[in-house]
Specification:
Strands 2, 3, 5, 6 and 7 form a five-stranded antiparallel β-sheet that branches. Strands 9, 10, 13, 17 and 18 form a five-stranded mixed β-sheet that branches. Strands 11, 12, 14, 15 and 16 form a five-stranded antiparallel β-sheet that branches. The protein is elongated, with a radius of gyration of 22 Å. The chain has 205 residues and is mainly β. The chain has strands at 2-6, 17-23, 30-37, 43-45, 52-59, 68-69, 82-84, 95-96, 102-109, 112-113, 118-122, 128-133, 139-141, 148-154, 163-164, 177-179, 184-185, 190-192.
Length: 205
């Protein structure tokens, strides 16, 4: 399997990981069979594959480009199946990656950094499109996201109460966060409200 990975302006992207998975129907089971890294001009070659059906994932490491499955798919279910026969080379398994932006910030609980909090990022339809875990100092950063508007929430659990960016308790009241291609939208901080303790029960003599 051969192809070319390009980015903005159609220029080839070097250093993109290419992961080739074999699909075992009728059960949709993906097994990683081979990997490659794109050359300076964005080209790659994956050789030595046995006959079978394959799907290909293009995975950037760092930067602002989002991962993509062949062909122009966001997940493996929508990816195009590539039949490969003995002695055959399937070419033009290309990808044009889209540059996105990131969201970063810090989560505080009772005025202190909140480590290991789960941060969910929602698109305009209310679907979770990315999640991140805060580090020991309460900082988080998302994976690259398509340019647009999003809402950010700390999920309840792990000792923390749920809260949305902007101080809201639900999606409708949360503040919109704009993501710009090639940039990181920072300071998207969330101050959590500590869980309210149940009222003490006193007995009447």
């Amino acid at each position: 399997i051969t192809g070319l990975v390009s980015g903005s302006g159609g220029l080839g992207l070097a250093g993109i990981d290419v992961l080739v998975y074999e699909v075992d129907p009728p059960v949709i089971l993906l097994e990683l069979r081979a990997t490659a890294v794109t050359a300076a001009d964005g080209s790659y070659v994956v050789s030595g594959l046995p006959p079978g059906n394959y799907k290909v994932l293009f995975q950037p490491t760092g930067g602002y480009y989002s991962l993509q499955w062949y062909r122009d798919a966001g997940d493996h279910e929508a990816a195009e199946l590539i039949p490969l026969h003995a002695g055959e080379t399937v070419g033009k398994v290309d990808a044009a990656l889209t540059a996105g932006g990131k969201v970063s910030g810090r989560v505080y609980d009772d005025g202190k950094p909140a480590p290991f909090a789960l941060v969910d990022i929602f698109d305009s339809t209310g679907i979770i499109v990315d999640s991140a875990i805060t580090d020991a100092q309460g900082y988080y950063v998302s994976e690259p996201l398509p340019a647009g508007f999003y809402k950010v929430r700390v999920a309840s659990g792990s000792g923390y109460s749920g809260r949305w960016h902007g101080g809201a308790d639900d999606f409708s009241g949360a503040a919109w966060v704009q993501v710009i291609a090639g940039e990181t939208t920072g300071n998207i901080d969330i101050l959590l409200t500590p869980p309210v303790a149940p009222p003490a029960v006193t007995s009447v003599a």
